[in-house]
């Protein structure tokens, strides 16, 4: 029953999302646009056989997960809290679990669309090499799933701390952009000052970008990383820890109405 | 069967300010009960405590036999039996009327037919319109549609007709009376006197978080006992007489005129006069 309602919620969420042209453009096309701008400006080789645009695409795919989950939810949930949507739902017998299943379906769909667009455009225009082995595809899959899950619960957790829907984009967007700058999306991570590297290592995006590079860049590029290794086990561990902490925070902070 | 809603000495403060200062009331099943009071009197706070949206500081509350402040895992079953129409909302702007009503019908165990509900609230012509294109009155009727889709035993209406034009308000009243005829208990907050008078079986007037009086609209403030004022025109001037027995007095006056009394009116204090006196808006 709850699961079936969750699917119905997902359907309603997707309908509402696709009918808001601004949010479709902002969430789905913005990362592709950034890919074009950065990928076209910075074409230099950063290592034998690796261009900056390839490095950048890997980071943008990680960012796509942040966009579709964290950014989208942390902005939209406060708006829905302000306009009464959440309070109205709270007054019905619908289980909160169904509500979150619906949100997860929306995040999953927009994440899939974004990742596919970035993969396709990256491969066609910026020499992105798609993973060439089953093991790499498997790694890519768990990175995407774990990363999205993290991004979703942290978005819900932050939404609880944001007071008004009107102010939400002004809080969330700069946060995400700064995180992208210090986590190895817009700049090569190993070229950042070490205090910045250590600071960004506290957040999941740094680990997600590193994981994506391990999937899309040649294996020998690992020697160029700060730790001279992809640190796959550590990535899995840190993302899993953030998922647990984020779930806890989200359950604590979620509010159905303003007061 | 027990009363639909029982409230005893309900209290709630915000930052030292007592918004609800000891309210007690009992609402019987099948009744339309209006809570009437000025803005800031504590109407919404009271109703939102009954709806389970707000916590209370003290007092006891039973809605359909359950305490809305400690529902726990029974919350879903309880909410299946109530319908809530909140104050103004602006959600679901991109969905159509039909999509929204059909979707909400899935939340309840015994939903009404969504198309029949859309018809009942008079939105059939707008069924495929996006919600953001609806007028204020149409939106409010959609809110009611979502409030009644689950065949609730109790319907909460918080200032349902604010911003309506007179015609839309009449149509809305018809709808509420139709729901009462089906046996729905209705708790309505309003600051419109004519609304309370047209709909309510009983009215609780509240001011500054306290109940001033509970009565039927006809007897509120001793209105039915108040003296009547007879007014007529005689010798080119308006005459007035305060009367305890207006029928008798009018017959007497009529005798002087040998038939029709010019410009005759017999009035008692209006509900508005009584109400304004009660909430201290006059004198």
Structural descriptors:
heterodimer, A: about 260 residues, mainly alpha, two-stranded antiparallel sheet, 10 helices, about 75% helix, B: about 280 residues, alpha/beta, Rossmann fold, 2 domains, six-stranded mixed sheet, 9 helices, 12 strands, about 30% helix, about 25% strand, globular
In short:
The complex is a heterodimer of chains A (259) and B (283). Chain A is an all-alpha fold and 259 residues long.
Structure write-up:
- The complex is a heterodimer of chains A (259) and B (283).
- Chain A is an all-alpha fold and 259 residues long.
- Chain A has one domain.
- Chain A is 74% helix and 2% strand.
- In chain A, helix 6 packs antiparallel against helix 9 and helix 9 packs antiparallel against helix 10.
- Chain A is globular and about 60 Å long.
- The two termini of chain B are 44 Å apart.
- By secondary structure, chain B is an alpha/beta fold.
- The relative contact order of chain B is 0.14.
- At the A-B interface, helix 1 and helix 4 of A face helix 2 and helix 3 of B.
How is the topology of this model organized?
The complex is a heterodimer of chains A (259) and B (283).
Chain A: H1 2-19, H2 21-41, E1 45-47, E2 50-51, H3 52-82, H4 85-90, H5 96-125, H6 134-161, H7 168-182, H8 194-200, H9 204-216, H10 232-253
Antiparallel strand pairs in A: 1-2
Chain B: E1 5-14, E2 17-27, E3 32-36, H1 43-50, E4 58-63, H2 75-79, E5 82-85, H3 97-105, H4 114-120, H5 136-148, E6 154-158, H6 166-181, E7 185-190, H7 193-199, E8 202-207, E9 210-215, E10 228-234, E11 237-243, H8 246-257, E12 265-267, H9 271-278
Parallel strand pairs in B: 3-7, 3-8, 5-6, 6-7
Antiparallel strand pairs in B: 1-2, 1-4, 8-9, 10-11, 10-12
Helix pairs in contact in B: 3-4
Biggest interface reads: A-B, 22 and 29 residues
Unreliable runs of chain B: none
Largest β sheet strand count, sense and barrel closure of chain A? 2 strands, antiparallel
Strand content of chain A: under 5%
Cα Rg of chain A? 18 Å
How many DSSP H or I helices of chain A?
A: 10
**Within the largest sheet of chain A, what's the order of strands?**
1-2
């Amino acid at each position: 029953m709850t699961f079936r309602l969750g699917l119905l919620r997902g359907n309603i969420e997707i309908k509402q999302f696709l009918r808001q042209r601004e949010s479709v453009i902002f969430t789905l096309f913005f990362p592709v646009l950034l890919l074009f701008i950065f990928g076209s400006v910075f074409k230099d080789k950063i290592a034998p056989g690796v261009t900056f645009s390839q490095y950048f695409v890997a980071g943008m795919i990680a960012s796509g997960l942040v966009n579709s989950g964290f950014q989208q939810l942390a902005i939209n949930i406060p708006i829905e809290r302000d306009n009464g949507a959440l309070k109205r739902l709270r007054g019905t017998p619908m289980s909160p679990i169904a509500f979150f299943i619906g949100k997860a379906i929306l995040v999953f769909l927009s994440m899939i669309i974004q990742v596919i667009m970035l993969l396709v455009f990256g491969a066609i225009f910026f020499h992105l090499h798609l993973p060439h082995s089953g093991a790499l595809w498997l790694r890519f899959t768990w990175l995407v799933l774990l990363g999205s899950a993290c991004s979703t619960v942290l978005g819900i957790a932050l939404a609880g701390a944001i007071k008004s829907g009107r102010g939400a984009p002004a809080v969330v967007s700069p946060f995400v952009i700064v995180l992208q700058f210090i986590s190895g999306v817009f700049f090569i991570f190993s070229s950042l000052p070490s205090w910045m590297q250590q600071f960004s290592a506290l957040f999941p995006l740094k680990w997600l970008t590193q994981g994506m590079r391990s999937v899309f860049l040649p294996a020998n590029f690992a020697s160029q990383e700060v730790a001279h290794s992809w640190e796959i086990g550590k990535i899995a561990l840190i993302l899993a820890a953030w998922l647990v902490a984020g779930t806890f925070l989200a359950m604590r902070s979620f509010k159905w109405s303003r007061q | 069967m027990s009363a639909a809603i029982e409230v005893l000495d309900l209290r709630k403060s915000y930052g030292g300010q007592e918004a609800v200062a000891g309210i007690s009331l009992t609402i019987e099943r099948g009744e339309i009960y209006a809570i009437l009071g000025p803005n800031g009197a504590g109407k919404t706070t009271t109703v939102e405590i009954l709806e389970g949206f707000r916590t209370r500081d003290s007092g006891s509350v039973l809605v359909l036999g359950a305490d809305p402040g400690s529902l726990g895992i029974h919350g879903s079953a309880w909410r299946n039996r109530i319908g809530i129409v909140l104050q103004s909302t602006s959600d679901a702007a991109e969905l159509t009327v039909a999509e929204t009503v059909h979707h909400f019908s899935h939340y309840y165990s015994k939903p009404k037919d969504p198309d029949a509900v859309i018809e009942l609230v008079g939105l059939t012509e707008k069924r495929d319109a996006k919600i953001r294109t609806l007028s204020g009155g149409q939106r409010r009727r959609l809110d009611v549609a979502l409030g009644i889709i689950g065949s609730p035993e109790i319907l909460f209406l918080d200032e349902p007709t604010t911003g309506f034009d007179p015609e839309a308000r009449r149509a809305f009243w018809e709808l509420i009376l139709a729901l009462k005829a089906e046996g729905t208990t209705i708790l309505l907050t309003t600051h419109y006197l004519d609304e309370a008078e047209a709909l309510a079986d009983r009215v609780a007037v509240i001011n500054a978080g306290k109940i001033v009086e509970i009565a039927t609209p006809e007897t509120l403030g001793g209105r039915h006992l108040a003296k009547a004022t007879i007014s007529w025109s005689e010798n080119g001037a308006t005459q007035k007489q305060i009367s305890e027995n207006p029928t008798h007095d009018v017959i007497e006056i009529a005798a002087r005129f040998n038939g029709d009394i010019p410009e005759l009116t017999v009035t008692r204090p209006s509900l508005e006069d009584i109400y304004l006196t009660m909430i201290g808006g006059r004198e």
